[in-house]
Design goal:
Blueprint (H helix, E strand, L loop, with lengths): L1 H16 L1 H23 L10 H21 L1 H8 L2 H5 L6 H25 L9 H26 L5 H17 L12 H9 L1 H12 L8 H22 L4 H11 L1
Helix pairs in contact: 1-6, 2-3, 2-6, 3-6, 3-7, 3-10, 6-7, 7-10, 7-11, 10-11
Length: 256
């Protein structure tokens, strides 16, 4: 507990010192709302909602949490590259505690970034207090799933440069194939199947259901899928995570 707590405090302190990244994470969804949303609002009509702005807003909340939580996992790669993980592993807590601390910190950043958009939702549409509470619960679960996904991707990467390249390849397909920007029902059959395997699709669907919009999967299925996904992927990340990988690779190259 103490080791995980120390990692949480360290990661949150570092994240909030990087104000530029936090501000960029908040500006990005509002840019999509103003630029993309305003353009499509004139031509797009989505059944069950009053406007395209209202339709994409739940997806933008998920986008903010997704980018915030996944990009926070870059600290794992940074610490591996510069040897900080060796110091962390000096404690008897082990890899699960380190990853748990990282997950909680990344989840918190995702909640903060998504929460800012959530409290701004009256600018777009009106919601009830019950819907706000339900959306907050959906945000917490979605941020947790996104943070574990970021850790899983970072588990075998050796440098910050590799992480930056891979994360951009992963993030945008996850977003575009989630139904955040357009309904998945209109996709070709192959892409619709991929969307059903995409965890972000269930984050968006759960957020939409929480805010009173039509949902494709239903809240119960989305909660079940996201809960199982988070647990299973966290266990897989523990198995894949090798904090000494970079140094072992160097030793092998040196012997060679």
């Amino acid at each position: 507990m103490s080791a995980a707590y120390g990692i949480i405090v360290r990661d949150l302190s570092r994240a909030f010192r990087q104000r530029g990244r936090l501000i960029a994470g908040l500006v990005r969804p509002f840019m999509w709302l103003l630029l993309v949303g305003s353009g499509y609002n004139a031509i797009a009509r989505v059944e069950g909602v009053s406007s395209y702005h209202v339709f994409i807003y739940p997806g933008l909340i998920v986008m903010a949490a997704l980018f915030g939580a996944m990009l926070t996992a870059i600290s794992t790669v940074y610490d591996r590259e510069f040897g900080m993980l060796r110091l962390m592993l000096a404690s008897p807590a082990g890899v699960p505690a380190i990853l748990a601390g990282r997950m909680i910190a990344a989840t918190a950043i995702g909640i903060v970034q998504g929460g800012v958009l959530l409290v701004c939702i009256p600018l777009v549409t009106s919601i009830t207090a019950a819907q706000l509470v339900a959306a907050l619960g959906a945000l917490v679960l979605g941020a947790a799933a996104s943070s574990v996904l970021g850790l899983f991707i970072a588990a075998r990467l050796e440098s910050v440069e590799n992480f930056a390249g891979v994360i951009n390849i992963v993030l945008f397909p996850l977003l575009f194939l989630s139904g955040a920007l357009y309904p998945t029902a209109g996709m070709p059959a192959g892409l619709r199947m991929v969307a059903r395997l995409n965890p972000v699709s269930y984050e968006v669907d759960l957020m939409r259901a929480s805010l009173g919009q039509p949902s494709e999967f239903g809240p119960a299925q989305s909660i079940l899928v996201l809960g199982a996904f988070t647990l299973v992927l966290f266990l897989l990340t523990i198995l894949l995570f090798d904090p000494e990988q970079r140094f072992m690779a160097r030793s092998r190259r040196a012997r060679g």
